[in-house]
Fold this protein.
Amino acid sequence: MKITIAGVGAMGGRYALMLSRAGNDVDGIDGWADNVNAVNEHGLQANFDGEQVVAKIKAYEQTKIDPSAVADLVILFPKSMQLDGMMQSLKPVITDHTKILCLMNGIGHEEIIEKYVTRDNIFIGNTMWTRRNGRTRQIKAIRQRFSRLAQRRRRRSSNRGCKKDREIVIRRWTKC
């Protein structure tokens, strides 16, 4: 599967690294030229609980995307205020069959994304991976450790007071 990560910062970099290590063909797109150059020169580097790992991927500057790098899946990680510009830049690698997975912070991103792709190809989610940026191109990944109390609270409150908004095909929870 050809996967494009849009926004190869700490979270996007971690996803790109993990998906590449799992055998996927991964490209990265970022608006920060120094980051793109570092990824192309040194690969994505991460420290997973003391283990140094590296994944070589091809990274493109947001304004210099190779149109032949058509994606089956695009995973979005740009900052919210950069989403529209990123989607505009991604147009050459998006086809009618490309799926878009938005794992960005916040809500309401589907309204921008559906200006560029059909609603049927948009998936909205969230991530529980923690991360911390080090220097350019270095990611410190932290394992998830939750106390039993925190896990119980999450189970009890996960859907309390919420309902599914039937007007939106994309799964999004709204407060009652």
Remarks:
- The longest strand covers residues 25-30.
- Confidence is low (pLDDT under 50) at residues 142-176.
- Residues 102 and 124 are 5 Å apart (CA to CA).
